[in-house]
Design a protein that fits this description.
The complex is a heterodimer of chains A (116) and B (137). Chain A has 116 residues and is an alpha+beta fold. In chain A, 66% of the residues lie in helices and 14% in strands. Chain A has 5 helices and 3 strands; from the N terminus they run αβααββαα. In chain A, a hairpin with a 5-residue loop joins strand 2 and strand 3. Chain A starts with a helix and ends with a helix. In chain B, helix 1 packs across helix 4. The chains are: A alpha+beta (116), B mainly alpha (137). At the A-B interface, helix 2, helix 3 and strand 3 of A face helix 2 and helix 4 of B.
């Protein structure tokens, strides 16, 4: 479950970044690091497999762009299906967050009531 | 890759992969691109710099495998078993054919040893016109 959650979070982060603009792997890692002040680090090892899976599912597409004499970057672009998936993931995450808040805010009275 | 540390880091990572199919190849190519991107801002980076930024190659493999579904890991195990099986069969085939060839050679050697070479004089007659007839005259 923890792995699934992590992967879903990564999917959400990636789709969110791509909903802002087309991006490539290294830039995505840097952006996540900058935005979260290094608290969340998305490594290449988990980023690329997640990107491939998203592409396989038709949520994103990729294209190559030359950025120098020898350099070529693989840019990723979010598709319409991906926008819908992003919304779904955000909804799921919000629900999950509420559940966590409910668990953490659980009072003893609730347990007693249940037991009675 | 001009920086030797990047080359070493990439080679270590590449050698650690349990198999190299299309997806792994793509991952390695993309990872190499990230390494290139890193060298733009850190042209004289050391191996330790790479480890502190990207993580140990072993950790990268472990994280990569975590992101894969269980089918992938099972497939890797299956492939490894198949490779072992094929290798064993190949070794057995080599041994059997080696033994067979040795037996054949030994038998041939014995046959040659038993046999006798007969020397004799033979006349060879060539039919048709003699091309050196004029020269002889």
């Amino acid at each position: 479950m923890a792995t699934n959650l992590k992967i879903n979070h990564f999917r959400m982060f990636i789709l969110k970044l791509l909903s802002l603009h087309d991006s490539y792997g290294y830039e995505m890692v840097q952006l996540i690091k900058e935005v979260t002040d290094g608290y969340i680090s998305l490594s290449e090892a988990s980023l690329y497999p997640t990107l491939y899976k998203l592409e396989e599912d038709g949520f994103i597409s990729s294209y190559k762009q030359k950025t120098g004499i020898k350099m070529e970057r693989n840019y990723f672009h979010i598709e319409e299906k991906g926008q819908q998936e992003l919304q779904k993931l955000i909804d799921e995450y919000t629900r999950y967050q509420h559940c966590i808040s409910d668990i953490l805010g659980m009072k003893e009275r609730f347990i007693e009531k249940k037991n009675a | 890759m001009k920086n030797i540390n990047i080359h070493n880091y990439y080679s270590t990572l590449k050698n650690l992969f349990p198999q190299t199919n299309y997806e792994e190849g793509r991952f390695l190519r993309d990872f190499k691109k990230s390494l290139y991107e890193y060298t733009i801002s850190h042209p004289y980076c050391t191996y330790d710099d790479l480890v502190s930024y990207f993580g140990k190659p072993q950790d990268i493999i472990s994280e990569y495998l975590t992101c894969q579904n269980s089918d992938y890991i099972l497939e890797c195990i299956k492939k490894k078993k198949h490779t072992k099986c094929i290798l064993r069969m190949f070794i057995i085939f080599l041994l059997v054919s080696g033994i067979g060839f040795s037996i054949f050679c030994f038998a041939a050697y014995k046959e040659v040893k038993k046999g006798k070479i007969v020397y004799g004089n033979y006349d060879i007659a060539i039919e048709g016109e003699d091309p050196y007839e004029d020269e002889k005259k």
